[in-house]
Amino acid sequence: MNKKGISILGAVWIGIVAFITLSQIFMIAFSAIDDNIGLWGIIEFSIFFVIGVAYLIGFTLYHKDIIKGKIWKYLFPNKKPVVYKNMFKLNLISFVTSQLWIALAITWLIILPFDKNGPILFEGVWIFWFFIPIWFTLGVLGIIGAIGAIVTNYSQRDWSKYTKYFALLGLVPGIAYAVYEFCNRKNIEENELNLLNTSENN
């Protein structure tokens, strides 16, 4: 029996860590073009990025039994769920939150000033111009991931195995679903086998 797994809260935690780690890339780029933050910002956000990547790699290696030891179980979520739950609804949440990212980008696009030459850039405003394409990109990727997860999950063809890969584009909710599925894979197989045996007995 598989001794490792991950709870819903543990999967959400990994999703949050992954999202924060990804955001450091944008903050590094932001620091590079903002003279007020500059080099120290690049160094600081680079450190956070490296720590996040190291944590995610360590989590993956631990769940694949490549690294072992009691100390790791206190560092990485590994609590096996008592009952496996189908957490596909996280992809529906991802679909909604992704639209909010796009709505945020469009809202600021409407609010920010324009003239006949294009966007008006002055102190403080250009920051939003920097983040608008990022918000829009995150939203579009999240929607693509959520739609892909929905289509593959409900397809009559055997595409459900691709659902968790699409879900990875869905930021925190989508990543949480994917991690929950990956880490509880053996538990899922055991659950499906038990359901099959029960139906045959009936």
UniProtKB/TrEMBL annotation:
Transmembrane segments: 12-33, 39-62, 90-114, 126-150, 162-180
Keywords: Membrane, Transmembrane, Transmembrane helix
Official protein name in the record: Uncharacterized protein
